[in-house]
Amino acid sequence: MLICMGEEIKSSQFSEQDHDGFQQRLEAETQILKQWFAEERFSAVAPVAGFELEAWLLERHGLRPASVNEVFLQTLNNPLASPELACFNFELNCTPRTLSGHVFSSMHSEFARLWQQCWKAAHEVDVDLMMIGTLPTLDNEDLTLGNMSDMARYRALNREVVKGRKGKPVVMDIPGREHLKVTHRDVMLESATTSFQIHMQMSQAQSVRLFNASQILSAPLVALTANSPYLFGKDLWDESRIPTFEQAVALGGFEDAAFGPIQRVTFGSGYVRESLLECFMENLEHYPGLLPVDFNEAPENLHHLRFHNGTIWRWNRPLIGFDETGLPHLRLEQRVVPAGPTLCDAIANAAFFYGVVYAMATTDVPAESLLEFGRVKDNFYRSAQRGLSASIYWLDGKQVNVRELLSDVLLPMAYDGLQQLGIADTDSKEYLQVIQERLDSGINGAAWQRAYVKKHGHNMFALTQAYLKRQESGDPVHSWTI
After folding, report:
1. Strands 127-130 and 89-93, how do they pair?
2. Whole-number Å distance between alpha carbons of 342 and 138
3. How far apart are CA 33 and CA 441, in angstroms?
4. How many domains does the chain have?
5. How many CB atoms lie within 10 A of CB 200?
6. Could you tell me if residue 378 is inside a domain?
7. Whose CA, among 224, 256, 324, 329, lies 20 to 30 Å from 47?
C-alpha cells in the first residue's frame, strides 16, 4: 500500500538539499505532465483492469501475525509478489487485462493459481495466509519497528513522517460500537490494514467522468464490501480500515500546515473539473516531498512525480503509467475495498465496481452535477462506519438506505455497464449474482464476523480460526455458516 510495489531506494536519510532538489524535479515533471494533458498525449487503449491484493502471514497454530515475509517471498519466488510495510504482510498483483470478454473468470483463475502457490510457499515456512481487512488477533504490541520489513524505503518513510509530525505521537481515536484509543510513535499502525485495490486504465477523454463516478461510488462500495469490524479486540466501524489508515499516517501539507486540514490520507478536496492534472497540481502545491530521492532519470519518465504521488493516499487515486511502447497512460486506483473474504468475493466486488463506474460515467447527465462533493464525502464515512445499514444521500437529493440503493439501482447499472464494456454474459451473471446474494442476505464480511461473535462469544482467536477455515473453502461469504 505504501509507495510503489517493490520499489526500493538507496538511502533512508535526506538533507535539506535533497528536499530542495526533489521539489525542483517535481516542478519540472509536473510542467511536462501539464503539456501532455494539453496535447492529449495519453494512450487511448482502454479500459484495462488490474488488481492488487494485500494479505497476512499467520502462525499456523496461534493465528497471530508471523513476521516472515522475507523468507516467504524468497520461497515463493514470484515477481507478482512483494513485501509490505510489516514483515507479516505481503502484496500480490495480477496481470492487467482488457475489460472485455471473460476478463473476470480469467483473472480469477490467475489469482487462484497464484494464491495456491502462496499457500504452498507459506506451508513450507510453517505459516498460514489470510485475506481480511483488519486481523482480529492483531495486538497493538505487534506494530513495532522490530516488525518493519527490512527495506530502506520503509525506514525512510517512518523517519520522515515522524519528522513531519515534529515528533508528536499518533493518537488513534476511533469511536465506534466500542471506543478504541491508542498512542503510537511510528507509522506501523498502517500495517493493521490490508486492502484489495482495483485499477482501471482509462482514456483521457473518459478520465474525468470515471474518476468522479468512482468518488461517488466509494460510499456504496465500502458498505457492500466491509470486512474490518474488529481492531485490537474492539468492535469499531464496519470498515475500520478507513479511520485506522487515515489516523496512522496523520500528516498534513507543507510545514505550516503539518497538522492542518490537508492530509496525506484523504478522500480528496473535490471533484475533478477539467482533467486529472488538477490532482497532480495539488500534489505539487500542497504536499512536500516525503521521500526526496534523486532517481537520476530523464524528466520525461516522470519518476519523481509518480513516486511523490505514491506517498499521497487518496481513497481514489489517479496514476500515471507507461505502456510497452513508452506511451503514457492514465489509471484510476479505487482503494476503499478491504481484502477478502475470498477471491470469489474480491472478483465479484471488482466486477460490480467496473460495471457501475462505467455506466455512471457514460450517462447523459454527469452524476457529479447532481450531488455536491460534501455529501459524497459524508456518504463515504457514514457507509464505512455503518455498512449496509447506512443511510446516504443520492443523486436525486434524497436519503436512501445504501443496501436498497445497491440492490435496486446500482446492481442493474452494473449489468448495463458490463454489457457496454463487452463483458461476456456468463462472467457478468456469475459474479454479479454473488453481489445479489450478498445483498439479499445482508451478509458481507463485517456482518459475518459480528454474527459469529454474537453466537460464539468474544474470542478473537476462535473468530480468526473459523474465518480462515471458511475462507479456505473458497465459497463467497454470504454462504458461510455461522
Report:
1. unpaired
2. 20
3. 47
4. 1
5. 27
6. yes
7. 224
